[in-house]
């Protein structure tokens, strides 16, 4: 835990590094212990359609 906080501390202040470390650790534990098959899908970022000058690209 100390090493990860030190690594995060190179980029963030001490409080933020500690909170990010806890978040990462918690997500890792939840993912490792999750039993539902949908758990991975919940952590997958959603893809948004590409935009061009504020308008969606593709068929209308």
Q: Outline, from the CA principal axes? A: flat
Order of neighbouring strands in the sheet with most strands: 1-2
Ends: how far apart? 50 Å
**Roughly what fraction of the amino acids lie in strands?**
5-15%
Number of strands: 2
- Mean of all residue-level pLDDT scores: 76
Poorly predicted runs are none
**Total number of helices:** 3
Rg, rounded, reads: 18 Å
Q: Structural class of the helices, strands and pairings?
A: mainly alpha
Give a short account of the largest sheet. Answer: 2 strands, antiparallel
Which assembly state applies to the chains in this document?
A: single chain
- Helix share, percent: 55-70%
- List the secondary-structure elements in sequence, H or E: HHHEE
Protein name: MarR family transcriptional regulator
Organism: Saccharopolyspora gregorii
Keywords:
single chain, about 60 residues, mainly alpha, about 5% strand
If you had to describe this structure to a student in words, what would you say it looks like?
Residues 46-60 have a biased composition (Basic residues). This is MarR family transcriptional regulator. The radius of gyration is 18 Å and the shape is flat. The mean pLDDT is 76. It has 60 residues and is mainly α. The longest helix is centred in the middle third of the chain and has 20 residues, at 14-33. The chain has helices spanning 2-9, 14-33, 39-43, and strands at 51-52, 55-56. It has a domain at 1-36. Helix 1 (2-9) packs across helix 2 (14-33). A two-stranded antiparallel ribbon has the order 1-2. It is 55% helix and 7% strand. The termini are far apart.
